[in-house]
Amino acid sequence: MTLDDLTRTSGEWLRGAGPESDIVMCSRIRLARNLADFPFTNRASRSEKAEIEAHFKSALEGAKIEAGYFDVNGMSNLDRQFLVERQLISRELSSGEGPRGVAVTPKENIAIMVNEEDHLRIQYMLSGFRLPQVWDEITALDDQLEDDIAYAYSSSLGYLTACPTNVGTGIRVGVMVHLPGLVANKQIDKVFRALQKINLAVRGFYGEGSQAFGDFYQISNQQTLGKSEEELIKILTDVVPQVLQYERSARQELVTGRRQHLHDQVSRAYGVLKTAQTISSEETMLLLSSVRMGINLGLIDDLSIATVNELFIQTQPAFLQKLRGSELGVEERNVARASYLRSRLGNGRPVEEG
Amino acid sequence: MICQRCQNEASVHLTERVGGKRQELHLCAGCARKAGLVLPESAPDLGLESVVQSLIVQNVGELVGELAELACPDCGTRYMDYRTDGRLGCPQDYRVFSKGLLPSLQRFHGATRHVGKTARLRPAAVHRLRLRSQLREAVAREDYEAAARLRDQIRLKDTHA
């Protein structure tokens, strides 16, 4: 599997399938794990990082997981950015130093980062609201890797991690939710404050420190010690439905109170995306968000949620440049983005590559 | 109020909550300076780093003297390095810095004990990793004879794994 292969496929988590997939784009769990008897990544020497990477690769082979390994060290900036856009690596791994990389399965449901803040960051993603299933899958994968790797673990503090905010279970349980209704009725901050009060974190599309993006937000646990993985998952599975309910009533209000206005906004957004000759990334996100909500409310019937989900990723700068096979400036990207959108949305002339 | 260390008049007063318990510290200017709680009178470096350090030191309250001296024998990380960048250096640090870490864990997680999934105890794998660690040390001290012996032991274990 090569990076170029990834430009021709899309991740399972974008399929728009599974429970509540009108609002919950995907469910994600990540586990932070470290190898016993090695310093954490920030203190490990180059050769130790190489050793950790080699250990992981042999464990991956032993676990018989069909995954491609991408060596991030020595990779071009564009390729690293491409992996960040696809949610396969973090910005921290992208900008890190020394031997490091990521193992990715063809469906992109599994991504295991090596030598990020922790030696291993195991991520499992599925479309829709399916946290218990994601947990079953990722804990089995964790067990398989443990056949060959001795984890840094203490009976009192659990899995030992570079940052004490992850110690214990090392788990981050999260959902990526699309909340354009709550953004439109300006209730979003209120919901976030309520979530923060019960120790849940709300982050932007690309995780810690990133901005909201097309009205997508990640809701996840902060506490990792003193509660079991199942308990932490239960908090999310109990609380997220309430957020979904708020979002649904916000959408319903928009439909009943301002139906014509809403229909107009959604149709115009769709129209611009289908016909624009040049378009910025920000405008694209905004319009795709309207279109996505429009599909869910039955205002657009010739477009699938999966296509819109994919377009959120495939209109990002690195993807467009990988597709063209060359680096593009901002203006060239805006033209390439508009052209790609026209071709995917089935309107206008077919895309002229190159 | 008198200094808790030397009976002089105390002029520095600190309070901190550790594990829900209020702790007070009263020191005279001299003892506070010795404990690193105030900058020395002729502090040459008033850069951000030293100000941050002194704030962190104040934050740790009573444990300051003891914690400020701590360094992990395995990875060399000092407790103060951790307070500066929030990252630990190796798994051993949890044991070495436990006095300072447990109150932070209690504050952040509301707990200090793991109750989730347990790792499998795998003595063979741990032993192999330990041999590798010894090998790294042998190479570092240029003891190539020991290094060669350790390398053979690791190979043997890998073949039998």
UniProtKB/TrEMBL annotation, chain A:
Please report a single Pfam family linked to this protein. ATP-gua_Ptrans
Tell me which residues bind ATP: 26-30, 121, 172-176, 203-208
Q: Does the keyword Transferase apply?
A: yes
Q: Which reaction does it catalyse?
A: L-arginyl-[protein] + ATP = N(omega)-phospho-L-arginyl-[protein] + ADP + H(+)
GO-annotated cellular components: extracellular space
Q: What EC class does the entry list?
A: transferase
Q: What biological processes does GO assign it?
A: phosphocreatine biosynthetic process
The UniProt record lists the EC number as 2.7.14.1
Q: Which InterPro entries match?
A: Arg_Kinase, ATP-guanido_PTrfase, ATP-guanido_PTrfase_AS, ATP-guanido_PTrfase_cat, Gln_synth/guanido_kin_cat_dom
Which segments constitute the Phosphagen kinase C-terminal domain? 23-250
Question: GO molecular function: any one?
Answer: ATP binding
Q: Which UniProt keywords apply?
A: ATP-binding, Kinase, Nucleotide-binding, Transferase
Q: Which family does it belong to?
A: Belongs to the ATP:guanido phosphotransferase family.
> Matching HAMAP family, A to Z?
Prot_Arg_kinase
Q: What does this protein do?
A: Catalyzes the specific phosphorylation of arginine residues in proteins.
Name this protein carries in UniProt: Protein-arginine kinase
Gene that encodes it: mcsB
UniProtKB/TrEMBL annotation, chain B:
Query: Which terms does the record give in the GO molecular function aspect?
Result: cadmium ion binding; cobalt ion binding; copper ion binding; kinase activity; zinc ion binding
Which Gene Ontology BP terms does the record give?
stress response to cadmium ion; stress response to copper ion
Query: Where in this chain does the record put each UVR domain?
Result: 130-155
Give the keywords, sorted. Kinase, Transferase
Record-linked PANTHER family: PROTEIN-ARGININE KINASE ACTIVATOR PROTEIN
- The name of this protein is Protein-arginine kinase activator protein
| Originating species | Paludisphaera borealis
Q: Which gene encodes it?
A: mcsA_1
